[in-house]
């Protein structure tokens, strides 16, 4: 009897875990199933299955343009956020710099500010500096949101870095710039790679800031949102399924490469 009661917490935790997994994946499974329905509406039962919606999506010029536009914005955002994030992380761990806690707090602040508030403030900012809404404004907004994640990942890696590595490089004649590129940057490699993948996924998925800062050319989330306004259809489910599969594959591959690099 005592053993039975001892197993109850573990059993309850296991049940809660699988209930959470079901809650998480069941809507995704329904969405993916509806993308194969041979009809113009989303509803059960699915009497016939088809791949035609995926063919339609892959031939949709508007969808392909939105995908390439989102990738371009994500690439620019990732480059800017990585450079700024590494610079801020190096500033935080540097010796003799005052107010490092304040610098860290300000750097990660965009990650905790509600998305709507952040989007409104960015819209006011770009209007103040006379920056037109569109690509540049979107990249600016996405970069502000992505920098904190690069800072945290780079800072975690830097704090585990033995100081003797840089000292050894300087003893061998390397100046600060050479030591950074030859020692610090390679050591940061796994963290930076993970942070860059995170920036890409954040940028592609960012709807609120894009909505406030975007121009006439839609990104992928904006395009899907516009199509949803006309009612759900298997075509929208096919778009969402493609985005889900690609982002999941990129995320899992990035995690694999990051763990492999750390183990080395």
From TrEMBL:
Keyword RNA-binding tagged: no
Indicate where this protein resides in the cell. Answer: Cell membrane
Q: Which residue numbers delimit the ABC transmembrane type-1 domain?
A: 67-254
Q: Name one GO biological process term.
A: transmembrane transport
Domain of life where this protein originates: Bacteria
What keywords are assigned to this protein?
A: Cell membrane, Membrane, Transmembrane, Transmembrane helix, Transport
Q: Which InterPro entries match?
A: Bact_Polyamine_Transport, MetI-like, MetI-like_sf
**Pfam families associated with the record:** BPD_transp_1
Q: Looking at the UniProt record for this protein, which Gene Ontology cellular component terms does it annotate, in alphabetical order?
A: plasma membrane
**Is Membrane among this UniProt entry's keywords?**
yes
Q: Which residues cross the membrane?
A: 12-34, 67-94, 101-125, 137-158, 179-204, 236-254
Topology with respect to the bilayer:
Multi-pass membrane protein
What family does the database annotate? Belongs to the binding-protein-dependent transport system permease family. CysTW subfamily.
Tell me what this protein is called: Spermidine/putrescine ABC transporter permease
Q: Which organism is it from?
A: Aquamicrobium defluvii
Q: State the organism's lineage.
A: Bacteria, Pseudomonadati, Pseudomonadota, Alphaproteobacteria, Hyphomicrobiales
